[in-house]
User: What shape does this take?
Amino acid sequence: MLFQGDRAVEDATPQGVAPDAPLFRNVFRKRQGPLSVQDFLAATPLFETLNRREQKRLAGIVHEREYAPGELIFEQGTPGAAMYIIKRGEVELFRQGADGREIARLVNLDTGTFFGESALLSEDNRLASARAAGPTAVIAIFRSDLADLMQRFPALGCKILHKLAWVLGKRLETAIEDMYRSPA
Amino acid sequence: MDSARVRRMRATVLQVAGALLVVGLVVFLLGALHAIILPILVGAFVAYLCIPMVNWFEAKGAPRVISILLLFTLFILFLFMSIRQIQDALPDEREKLELRVRVLYKVNENYQHLMGLDETLRKGNTLYQFIGSEVDPLVDRLNLWLFPDKEEREVFRRYREGNFVGGPQISDKVFESYVANAQTIKRRMERVFADPEATAGAPLADGLAKPPAESQGAVLSTLGEIVSSWLVTPFVFLFLLLDNGAMRRHLVSLVPNRYFELTLTLVDDLDRAIGAYVRGTLVECLLVGITLLALMILIGVEVQWAGLIAVLAGTANAIPFMGAIVGLGAGLVYALLAENAHPMLPFVDPGSLWVWIVVSVGITKALDDGVFQPVVLGRAVHLHPIVVITGAIGGSILFGVAGMLFAIPAIVVVKVFVTSVLKQLKAYYLI
Assistant: This one.
């Protein structure tokens, strides 16, 4: 998991998604309200290539969580189990020292952004901690649930894995650029 | 500050009281609804086993609901056919009498042959001299238990004479067995009265004390109660499959954020371990049953009885060691009573069928230990034999035979749960 400045976050942020933006995806929608989980997933780059049926299937396995300001979403050094998409609010990513104190703020993420996606591929320990900066609602996707879904629907799996590879490639690209740009 | 402490104390008292209330309620419900706990568990268990099948159908393009309805129909059909089979298998009055007469005849015949007993039943071979005084009272008791009493003898006579309309007459063979049994009982009584000290306390000398036979009506009434409490099973099966994980997600949503990922990981660990154990055990039982069936048919056991022995042994094999014990027990009972053994192997002698039963069960057990278990179960949860035996006995005390079968999966759940909780609590820095 690499979070190197705002640019990586911009790459991973869904285009044109704001909670109050009108959506005309379905002209038969009767009620204009907060985005449904399915709409949110559709607007996330990782899942934007899925068709409506696949998005619905994916929406069937997610968990919705709410966090109070300052509450930890996950902690550095613990095994990664889920990826998160911010539905509402703001999340801080930071590094902790050996004594558990915050030593570096990596980035602040807001609505529509996703993080912790490398947990979808392996249960390696988290490289940073995530904390709610304010009242925050997230959508969590558990690795095993997604693996099970991908096994049942291989076409859906191919689309997600392709986008996941693309996102991780972008993260790596940004990290390498920053590494060469930063003074030794 | 004091008020804060009071508030904390009050909260603690409320939490403890709430927990006690919940525990009390659960215990009360378990006691009050114990009759449907097992049917619910069975429905959940079968649904759990069917999840991979539903997923497979879904992966092949079949809608989930259709797949579930298909499995549900199969499940109902299976239940219906099982109940019908049980009802058909329950012998009527005449069949019960015939069966008792034939079983007693074969037992006496084999016992006399094994012990080398003469016509008076007083002199036998070395084996009889060695254990005869201990075994004779048992055989006496068995004779009393199986031989028809006065009323049953009257019914037997009327069946023999064809006085009941709509039912076949009792055959000559059965009648001859009945006469032979009566003569054996008579000789046994003569032996007891001729030498009362040799069989002191023998039941024959105590009079014809006999437990009352269960009436057909009572059996049907019990069957009716069982059927009504098991009606819940197919519905549990259906709703759990249609639920598609929604209940699990709801339960996870109740977990505090701090334990969210931990809970997801734990549930996944449990699911994997139990799934591997249960499905592995199922395949192992199936292989044991098929192997025993093939061997039994080869040594001359009639197909329907070979099938029954294989089903019993295969099912019992879910409890480690029990498959071989049940297979051996059922096989030896068959060998004792068999009348029509036609071995397919030229070197198998129908007279020594019991030896070949032992050999077949031995081969099956060796294959199970050496091939089936390592290949099928692999690295699934391993339980210590003492835990298995204690668990199986405990399960049988609580829920009978079904409790015995489900005790081992329950122990697996507890073991995996404890192991995983400790591992994950450490990984998430909670201990």
In short: Residues 205-213 of chain B have pLDDT under 50 and may be disordered.
